[in-house]
Specification:
The chain is α+β, with helices and mostly antiparallel strands. Helix content is 65%, strand content 10%.
Length: 375
């Protein structure tokens, strides 16, 4: 929203400058007491066009540079002794945009053409024509306009570079902190959870071998240990995903589907729409949504078949994973870490996630991720 307001203000400012310059040029031209002949009317038109063209200087600086230069030469040839103010503004805008070579070439051409234009008007001899050209466009002012534009362009480049450096530093520190947390979690929790898991598994095994009834508490401890171990591995993997290795994306979804099929799920992958490149973050989130959905289905759904559907739309990537498991509309899903992680990833990209039982039985996960296509 702030950027939109800034663009509106910049556009209004450009038009105010253009109208002001055009008005100043016309007033100066009218003060010369020209008659209403066809040539004079052409000169007035060139004065107005040269000024108003500055409104497009931010969008098309080279084109505006050419137009203002031609207008300056044109009204000089029509006999208007008016300074080329609009052309100076255009030189400044073109240099600021970084078109240095073009600006220098056009400026030299205009400097050479102005005396010729004054001669063509027939109102001056050679000496007076060169004097009028110097008055219309002093080389010093031309150099000053170009230098000002170049200085501002370099200042803006330095500011942009400093902003990029700050963002990269912040991202690097975040990655370092994430890896530090992963190491701390691994050192402090992995060993203890492994001990709990091994000891509970051993206790259940020994009890069953002796023909004893296994206490429910021991079975609950064993299952909790297994679940905690899986969740810890998933959390550590996510924390260590620091973008230093090629990220998993849409190209790796097929591997997930094939792996699920090997584990006993009848899994089908369908892709619709015209495939196009998507941002890395979108591809990675899509991969994580499919991965976590298939993992949850294998753990909790007691499903036999799974359908993974990916739809490439012009501005959205839609993902849907359906299973025929035991979930029913009357059974509310327990929001675990995996589901919350999916929702956070999708929401962070401005997308939407829906995860709920299907009316015909089973569970569905639907995600829509906005895709900003490069123009």
């Amino acid at each position: 929203m702030n950027k939109g307001r800034f663009r509106v203000r910049a556009g209004v400012r450009d038009w105010l400058i253009a109208v002001g310059v055009a008005a100043a040029l016309l007033v100066t031209g009218l003060s010369g007491q020209h008659s209403a002949t066809g040539l004079d009317l052409l000169g007035y038109a060139l004065l107005a066009v040269g000024g108003l063209a500055l409104a497009a200087g931010r969008r098309a600086p080279v084109a505006v540079l050419a137009v203002t230069g031609l207008c300056a030469v044109g009204y000089q040839a029509a006999g208007f002794d008016v300074a080329a103010v609009a052309f100076l503004f255009a030189v400044y805008a073109a240099m600021r945009a970084g078109h240095r070579t073009v600006t220098v070439v056009v400026s030299v051409a205009v400097l050479a053409a102005l005396p010729l234009a004054a001669l063509v008007s027939g109102l001056h001899d050679t000496g007076e024509a060169f004097a009028q050209a110097r008055g219309a466009l002093q080389i010093a002012w031309l150099i000053a306009a170009g230098a000002a534009g170049e200085a501002l362009r370099q200042a803006e480049q330095r500011a942009d570079e400093a902003e990029r450096t700050r963002e990269e530093t912040a991202r690097r520190r975040a990655d370092e902190e994430r890896l530090h947390i992963a190491r701390e979690l691994h050192d402090s929790l992995t060993h203890q959870i492994s001990v709990i898991k091994v000891q509970s598994e051993a206790a259940v095994h020994v009890a069953r071998k002796r023909g004893e009834e296994v206490p429910e508490a021991m079975l609950a401890i064993r299952e909790a240990g297994r679940e905690a171990s899986r969740e810890l591995r998933a959390t550590l993997q996510a924390l260590r995903d620091d973008d230093t290795t090629p990220p998993h994306g849409l190209d790796h979804v097929t591997e997930l589907v094939e792996r699920a099929a090997k584990n006993g799920l009848e899994t089908t992958l369908t892709i619709e729409g015209r495939r196009h490149d998507v941002p890395t973050a979108v591809g990675r989130t899509a991969y994580r949504v499919v991965q976590e959905s298939l993992t949850n289905i294998a753990r909790h759904a007691n499903a036999g078949t799974v359908l993974v559907h990916i739809d490439y739309r012009p501005d959205t990537l839609a993902i849907r994973i359906d299973d025929d498991g035991k979930a029913t509309p009357d059974s509310a899903p327990q929001p675990g870490i995996g589901l919350m992680g999916m929702r956070e990833r999708v929401t962070a990209l401005g997308g939407r996630l829906r995860a709920e039982p299907r009316s015909e039985g089973g569970f569905t996960v639907q995600a829509e991720l906005p895709v900003e296509r490069a123009s």
